[in-house]
Design brief:
By secondary structure, this protein is α+β, with helices and mostly antiparallel strands. 35% of the residues lie in helices and 24% in strands. It has three domains: 4-123, no CATH class; 125-158 and 225-367, ATP-grasp fold, B domain (D-amino Acid Aminotransferase, Chain A, domain 1, 2-Layer Sandwich), CATH 3.30.470; 160-222, ATP-grasp fold, A domain (Dna Ligase, domain 1).
Length: 410
């Protein structure tokens, strides 16, 4: 059996404090700072809140240097790393010591970072990431599994998935085919920032395709009163560890269906929970065959006591950090990092894991729900008699349009 105390020290000394964490926000990796003795100088954050800055003053924060809060996109991160001088700083003072890199999401230039000093980047391969972001490719991948294929047949009948070109004529073609409104449409290729739109009429459709950049859109029937659910898991080369599902908080803004947070107080039928977890497990098996390691997530909807798969998220997700507020060895960030290593301690610990295909890990966390906000006064009025952990941007930070001012935890 693994000596838990010794194993914790091994994780802290040999993995966590030999890794640089390039995070979207300090909150994402606060559990490692709070529970796992991560050194502040090993963290580079894009953004922060007044509350986090009070706790962790030694962390480099990009938005405090630029005075702007902007969306964290592929081009943004590339610019951030290579024009801020951080890349040269990493190369000269950190990578030469053989320290690894943890990132919230993989980018094509991560390969360049991996080549420097034979370093390890704790992320999936970029080419695999791009393939899995293609909704058509991902669905075709799942068709190769008997269990998933039978599920997808039920899904197709319910959602009536279509792939059409991103043109105005598509709208009238579907109407003429008696494809009744409302619809949900999104781009063929998702990169974490593409919109999902509810379409009730032609004006909605025009507005949506003007924002979708890919030539092909995925179109499905809009299911009223459904429950959007997410579940994430960790893939080792021979194990798959699933975590408890969460309800996704989705809000509609000018037809766009935006992710606004997660709620782990989800109460659903036990059979539905097991079905979600089994689907995530079998999807994980298909990713495992491709050489996928680390964290991934799946989106589902629940309607009429049935589960329907929506898409794969080959990355950390917005809900992930809520289940990291603990010192448990099953902490998702810890298991994600361990999935890239093969030391004796890790092999022994991994071999003791025994999570069946329809079972998940349920972690005790400091928080169970969070939600983004744009107007902190509205939140304070709504919850004036409750104690909330409100994390808002600095007053002197300029917010780009549609970027959340902050979020609150409860």
């Amino acid at each position: 059996m693994v000596n838990i105390s010794e194993f914790r020290e091994y994780i802290i000394d040999e993995i966590i404090n030999r890794t640089i964490f390039l995070a979207k926000s300090i909150d994402e990796i606060e559990s490692l700072l709070k529970y796992w003795n991560l050194k502040q100088e090993n963290v580079i954050a894009v953004r922060t809140s007044t509350k986090m800055r009070e706790r962790y003053r030694n962390i480099y924060v990009y938005e405090l240097k630029t005075k702007v809060r902007e969306f964290s996109t592929q081009n943004f991160f590339r610019n951030y790393l290579f024009t801020s001088g951080l890349f040269e700083k990493l190369r000269s003072s950190i990578f030469s010591k053989g320290i690894n890199l943890w990132m919230f999401r993989t980018y094509e230039w991560c390969k360049d970072l991996e080549r420097i000093g034979n370093n390890k980047v704790l992320l999936i391969d970029y080419d695999l990431y791009i393939k899995l972001n293609n909704k058509i490719w991902a669905l075709n991948l799942l068709e190769g599994n008997d269990y998933l294929r039978s599920h997808l047949e039920i899904r197709t009948k319910k959602l009536k998935t279509r792939y059409e070109f991103n043109t105005n004529s598509t709208f009238y073609k579907l109407i003429n085919d008696d494809y009744s409104l409302p619809w949900v449409i999104s781009s063929q290729i998702s990169n974490g920032g593409d919109g999902v739109f509810k379409i009730a009429n032609h004006d909605d459709f025009k507005r949506a395709i003007s924002k979708i950049k890919t030539p092909v859109v995925k179109i499905e029937k809009f299911i009223e009163n459904c429950i959007p659910v997410n579940q994430f898991a960790i893939i080792f080369f021979d194990k798959i560890i699933k975590y408890q599902p969460s309800r996704q908080i989705i809000e509609e803004h000018e037809g766009e269906m935006r992710f606004k947070g997660s709620d782990f107080k989800l109460k659903i039928d036990e059979k539905i929970e097991r079905k979600i977890t089994k689907l995530t497990h079998f999807i994980g098996l298909e990713l495992q065959k491709l050489g996928y390691r680390g964290i991934f997530g799946c989106d589902y909807i629940i309607s009429d006591n049935e589960v329907y798969f929506i898409e794969i998220n080959p990355r950390f997700q917005g809900s992930t950090f809520l289940l990291t507020y603990n010192d448990d060895l099953f902490n998702p960030y810890i298991l994600h990092m361990l999935s890239f290593y093969y030391g004796n301690y890790i092999v022994e610990f991994k071999n003791n894991m025994d999570i069946c295909e329809n079972q998940y890990v349920e972690l005790k966390s400091d928080y169970s729900k969070y939600k983004y906000f744009s107007n902190i006064k509205e939140i304070e009025q709504q919850y004036k008699n409750e104690s909330l952990d409100i994390r808002s941007a600095f007053d002197h930070i300029r917010l780009e349009p549609n970027v959340p001012q902050g979020f609150y935890l409860e």
